[in-house]
Task: structure prediction
Amino acid sequence: MTDNMFTAHGTVVVSDEQRGTALVRAKDGETYFVICSKGYVLSVNLRTQQVRQALYPERHVESPFAALASSGGLFYTGAGRMFLEYDPVTNEFTYYSKNWPDELNVGFRLAESSAGLILIASHPTCRLSAYDPRTREITDYGRMDDREKYIGYIVEDEKGWIYMGIGTERRQMVAFNPKTGEKRQFLSEPERQQGSGYFHKGRDGKIYGHVQDDLHPCKGKFEWKRFLDGKGEPVPEAEVSPLAANYGGYGYSWGVNSPGTNPGLIKKLNLDEHELAYIHPETGAEISMRLEYFSYGAGLARMVGGPDGKLYGCSAHPCHFYSFDPKAGRIADYGKSFGRFICTYAVQGPIIGGACYTHGHIVHFDTGKPITQAPGPGQERNPRVVGSHDEIYRPRSSASHPDGKRMVFGGFAGYGAVGGGLCVYNVETGEQTVIRNEELVPYQSTVCMRFLKNGDLLCANTIETPGGAAPKTSEAELFQFDLDKRSIVRRAVPVPGAREVSVFEIDDAGLAHGITSDSIYSSASNAKFVGSGNAVYFVFDIGAWKTLHSRKLPEYGIPILGGMLKGKNGMIYGIMTKAIYRIDPGRRAFEIIAAPPSDIGSGMAIMDGRLYFGCGADLWSCRI
Result:
């Protein structure tokens, strides 16, 4: 679709990933395999092979984090701020609730109590609630920790005590008695290190737990305890009963929730590739089938204009690598490439470098060679992952060094950490050097950067901590960094009180034009936000090292990370969720070019007089 200004180039990736699965022994006696994804559930009758899809009520398009099959033959999940009950027999949502104003993810973890209550752990308030399917009432038990944001594990013992593993900045193990309201915390303050508490119900029906260094299930040697009646006693690892076959609702990528049903019935599930293989519950034969479903499309992440005249980018959840050829008007979807999506790009000659969420994977892509996803003998993948660095676990920024060889990537550190680092990648030698947060502005993360003419790096920071920790500083800084000496030259707060300097660009006169934000974004593709933008446009004199001008912007939404670039005409262009804008540096004028067709979630690239951006799963461009 084209009008005088906008062109819709289409939905880039029409596919989804499984976000939780469960084997439900339903009220009709049939066994259903239920898959939840962004905006819907799929239900497969394992006996008849019938597949049915049900969209979330009110066309609610959010992604779950957990799935639960109940003893009552129903399926439960949460998606964003919506909690859902689904009956696979009728293919209907029999209950849902959106009354969760303080949460980003309702049902981040789920479990069922012996009384048939559905236990709901929510993020980021670290609250525990219980839904009664009989009365359809929800009881709020309150916060299980006054600072932490994640309840990663939730189980109940035979006495009715509920145990929760909490993280990520100051891990904790908590026991809660819903009858009395008593709450017990097992870790003393010195023991509350980065990581999470862990609990599981063993095959013997008893509760086991330990502390670990990550939110996700870990392998290794642990100091285990066995828990009962709100108390824990050390137990040798050899006596720890393995995790029961019906996993405890721990997360969307960690197994099939299957109370009373053998999870081994499911042999393969790849929703992205529409593949399901399972063992027929009556005949024992292995069934392979193609899953057909409606998809809203995978949201787009950051994009970049390539040196070959094509646009490149990734979708998020699932991650597909794609290109768009403006001359041919054609999108090419190359499927899964790196397991995760690229959050920021830099270009040196024919090489596009990228950094991926999660674990800061560094990606090397030679645009002068064919894209090769399944290389033969003696071939290399292109693009390929060349390194990983948790110091930039959630990458957000990048810049290309004037020497034509190096790229620098920055971003947030991992779960529970405060303040990210930088990674320097030499595209010729392959050398990768990490600069830790202690050498930068402590407890802040770099979300935008540009090189100065003298080779120093100008970096813009945020105080935010999307991995669950609490910010330790109060206002975002700019800093000038000597990359060769690995030292800060000078620091400044361009806009007092701003939590984030989201974007900036340097004009031809050497002035930095930027926008701050006080919003917290909760997804790597900047598709979901909390609060208002409270955006401020400012002009910063790099030579004099002071702010020359600032003014609060009207409510154009949130500035999109990576969403500001200088055009060949010297003008600066950018995107916010509800506006496409232009900055005239000479007049210090911030001007709206157009309102987008729908909220912008990602961007951006400028190619041949057009500005490219993403609205959800759709690629758009605007004539500038």
